[in-house]
Amino acid sequence: MRSATGARVWLPAALAAGCLAHGAAAQNATQSQPAAPATPPVNAVPAAKPAVAVAKPATSATKPPATKPPATGKSAAAGKAAAAARPRYKPDRFAGRAGTYFKMVWGVDSLGVKTVESGEVIRFTYRVLDPDKAKILNDEKVEPALNDPRAGVSLVVPSLEKVGKLRQSQPPEEGKSYWMAFSNKGRLVKRGDHINIVIGEFHADGLVVD
Asked: Would the N or C end of the chain have less CB density within 10 A of its end CB?
């Protein structure tokens, strides 16, 4: 170290060490001071709050089917008229092999048995296709019989004083229908019974009474 006159002056080692220690302490004091908190800008905009989803109540996606009001007035009358105009279907009980048998062997079809006169009479009807094969059904010399296995009876064709036997006995003709009536006194044979018609060699078994 130089003096004011320019001469070098040597400081003692202890003084130099004290100067160095003082500088180091000052530097440490400066570094240990906490930094001042940053101040937010005046025009700073506060952070937006997170959006909260609001659930809406669920609604039915489908609507119940609309019901049609009952038909009234003219529409109801028109519906009844249409239903009455439709023909009633009656199943053919002699379709298939049974029908073929009566046509080929006896020359008849459309066999039917029905109660008449409040159930006091059972009428058997048939239609002739071949007069030669069907002539036995109209032969007045052959006595017809109606057998009902359920009721355990055998009905016959009655003969009235002024009318004669309740059956058609004229020679059969092709395409015409014929009938014969059996007395059902006591109404033993009922609707739904399965009966057998026997006219000589002609047998029609399992006919249903309508």
From this structure: N
Specify the DSSP class assigned to residue 157.
-
- Over residues 118-157, the pLDDT tens digits come to 999 999 999 999 999 999 999 999 999 999 999 999 999 9
In angstroms, rounded to a whole number, what is the distance separating the alpha carbons of residues 197 and 110? 14
Under DSSP, the state recorded for 2 is B
Domains of the chain: 97-208 (2.60.40)
Task: Tell me whether strands 159-160 and 202-208 are parallel, antiparallel or unpaired.
Answer: unpaired
Nearest to 94 by CA among 77, 71, 110, 78: 110
Confidence of residue 3 (pLDDT cuts 50, 70, 90): very low
Give CA separation, 170 vs 56, 78, 113, 131, in Å: 91, 47, 21, 11
